[in-house]
Amino acid sequence: MDHFAKCDFKLIQVDTVFSVPSVLETFGYMQQGKHISKIVLKMRESTGKLLAEDVNNTKSVSTEFDAAASYLLISGLGNLTFFTRSAGVGNHDADFKREIKSIGCTVQIVRGDVTNAEDVARAMGETPAPLRGIIQMFMVLRDQTFDGIDIGDWNAVTMSKVQETWNLHNTVLEKGLDLDFFLLFSSLSGTLGQVG
């Protein structure tokens, strides 16, 4: 705690900014694991124009991703299924789908709750192609200073992440899916607190 009080820890800085046409290089850089900073994938120019190249004019790249498969929550190489509690609720869904489609990806939005195992199984069953990847980004935010976190807030953040990940894991096993990747995202400050 003394280190926090003395502000010995510095905020993580942006290390490198990649643009959309360099997405494969972005993931390659990230996989090296030689950084402890933010990596940014820039989607638009300052004018608002998407930085994506015409999918039909891009050069061939060797990849292990399957263009005929669905990737739950991220793809860009074929099919993309978003599984969220708020699907269809906001006015931005159509714009969001149009933006993702503009980079050559088929988009499907499924409404449900990842903490509900039946919803997870239904969402995985509704993908338009075989599911080959999952990026788990759901989180409950209860950011507090370290000494201000109570057990209720900590449980809300941590237990929901555990339950939703467990539901995804079990459904993948039950369906016998052969995933290329299963990535988990979380909030460190939601779990450990923050200085303030």
TrEMBL record:
Q: Which domain of life is it from?
A: Eukaryota
Q: Which UniProt keywords apply?
A: Phosphopantetheine, Phosphoprotein
Q: Which organism is it from?
A: Epicoccum nigrum (Soil fungus)
Q: Name one GO biological process term.
A: fatty acid biosynthetic process
Molecular functions per Gene Ontology: fatty acid synthase activity
Q: What is this protein called?
A: Ketoreductase domain-containing protein
Which positions fall inside the Ketoreductase domain? 69-196
The reply to whether Acyltransferase figures as a keyword in the UniProt entry is no
**Annotated InterPro entries:** KR_dom, NAD(P)-bd_dom_sf, PKS_KR, PKS_NRPS_Biosynth_Enz
Identify the Pfam families for this entry: KR
